Amino acid sequence: MIRFFRNYRQFSIREGKIGNYLTYAIGEIILVVIGILIALQFNTFHENHINKKAEHYYLSQMKIDLISDSLIINQELANFEKKLPLIQGFLTEIQKENNKESFNEAFRNYINNILVPLSFVSNRSTYSEMESSGQLVIIRDRELRNRIVTLYNNLEKTENAYQVNYEFMQPIDALLIYEKGIAKYQKYQSALFSSYISEDELYDLKSMKADLENNAANWNWTIVDMQPAVTAQLDELRDVIARINAYLEKD
């Protein structure tokens, strides 16, 4: 086609047909423009295909990360549900008289299940990679992209909440565990000390009633304060996981 226009242009010039030459020039320009548009269309299609594959890969990996986070947080909530009755039971036993057996049982449950540092760190490897490389924009669904960004901002807030509460409880726990020597009675030390500890010695620790009540009250307050926020975080995680799953299945 281009060769035809070229021959026609040369003929028109020889014959002095300027109008025909202009027609040729316009046709040649149109052909060039069409060629450029086709090339751009192909490049755009190719780029979109690559981005779509990358989007699918990143979202699939992110879903795995978020499922991991949701399982951890779900376990945290289960631990909270388990800890609150242990705290209440321990506080009840502290108030009783002549209850060596039941107090010792409640005490062991308390120091082995409650005096555990609070910790949560989100698995944000995929999100961090996408954020640092500017790949978040390949998520075509803007609403989904915004929800993912909001989710990870909230996960960071949840991490900070855990850290703040850890820093609050750590010195309170340290008073019992280290200064008052409670570490000796914890399960992980049983191989060293259990054969030397009598039930009477354990019951004598009830004399630290004020310190024990203070510790239990602060743990109860901390857990009750954190429960709603952690529950909301789990709900948000599950919602975004479901949205990512639906989006991947739709594609």
What do you see in this structure?
This protein has one domain (73-250). The chain has helices at residues 2-15, 18-95, 100-113, 125-133, 142-179, 190-193, 199-204, 209-250. By secondary structure, the protein is mainly alpha-helical. The two termini are 40 Å apart. The protein is rod-shaped and about 110 Å long. 82% of the residues lie in helices and 0% in strands.
Map the helices and strands.
Elements: H1 2-15, H2 18-95, H3 100-113, H4 125-133, H5 142-179, H6 190-193, H7 199-204, H8 209-250
Strand content: under 5%
For the largest beta-sheet, the strand count, sense and barrel status come to: none
Radius of gyration: 34 Å
* Alpha carbon gap, first and last residue: 40 Å
Arithmetic mean pLDDT: 86
Q: Residue ranges: pLDDT <50 for 5 or more in a row? A: none
| Helical fraction | over 70%
Counted beta strands: 0
Shape: rod-shaped
Q: How does the helix and strand content classify structurally?
A: mainly alpha
How many separate domains make up the residues? 1
Tally of helical runs? 8
Q: What sequence of helices (H) and strands (E) makes up the elements?
A: HHHHHHHH
Keywords:
mainly alpha, 8 helices, 0% strand, rod-shaped
Brief summary of the model shown:
The protein has helices at residues 2-15, 18-95, 100-113, 125-133, 142-179, 190-193, 199-204, 209-250. It has 251 residues and is mainly alpha-helical.
